[in-house]
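User: Okay, second chain of the day. Same drill as before: sequence in, structure tokens out.
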Amino acid sequence: MRKRSGSSEETSIVAVYPARGRPRRVGRVGAVARRRLAACLVLPEPHRTEVDGLRRATGGEVARIPPHITLVPPVNVREEAWDEALEVLRRAAGAQPGPLDLVVGPAATFAPVNRVVYLAVDGDATARARLRDLRAALLVGPLERDERRRFIPHVTLSHRLPEGDDAHALAVLGRYEEPVRFAHVELLTYDDEARRWGSWADARMGPVRVTGRGGIETELGVSAIVPPDVVAGLAAWEVRSVTLPDSGTVVTGRRGREVVGVAVGGVERWGARRVGRVDGVVVAPPERGAGLGRHLVTTLAAELADAGAERIEPSEDADDATRALADAVGLGAPQP
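Assistant: Same drill. Structure tokens below.
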């Protein structure tokens, strides 16, 4: 979990620090802002590090993009469609019953069509059907593409192995198989200047919790990074004296496409214990005093407990409002 930097609380709106590998630059076509987006299942740790080792050994472009399964190939999305693209991501993830268990490996190749060496992706019949359904749910709206090629889920290792080396790689990795549980689906974005792909937004797969049923309903979605529309909302609310990391466990409150609040935290290991930290809870000014903050921090605490936290408390950097909410729902005070 990131700690706060030396920025001044008095002079800056809420600070949200960029996650590793999360490009901020936006490309432009003429005067129109656009992003090049791709929907993917990015391998989680420790599988990510292991597969990156295989990519290095086979000459793959490790620094350019994390190891992933492409669901929607790159497509240019104009600025006015970014919110819709985020909604497509959330709806597709929310339609899934939960994490998706797949098997990555063994190695294969697209030869003679091309010299790409990859790790095959498979699973039981249910997992394969869910993967197809997830892809179909993403290929709509601003992410829609005319896909004529047959969908072959895979994790690319290398595009350019010298002739003859691909056969050796296949022989060496022919028995490599690893079960991988994917909990999140991501939108990667391309940074034209850095020439690399990184996470722009993600959503956890599974039904979204809803509060206020029968009244003013609010969806409480879970992600691993602070969504772009939340960053924009925080700036619009002119929130001060709150510092949030932009990755960890993020609970976002929405009504339709409107962001109404966010809670961010994470789990750290303190000696033999795993401690959950509530870093910050922010509610949109018009929604304050209606109980949304409690719903956000309670949901965040449940997520941290599910992630193995034995104790949950506000972080040292938490503001007074976050500490008050944590106290109101019975979370512990920070330990020295």
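The chain has two domains: 27-192, 204-328.

User: Thanks, on to the next one.
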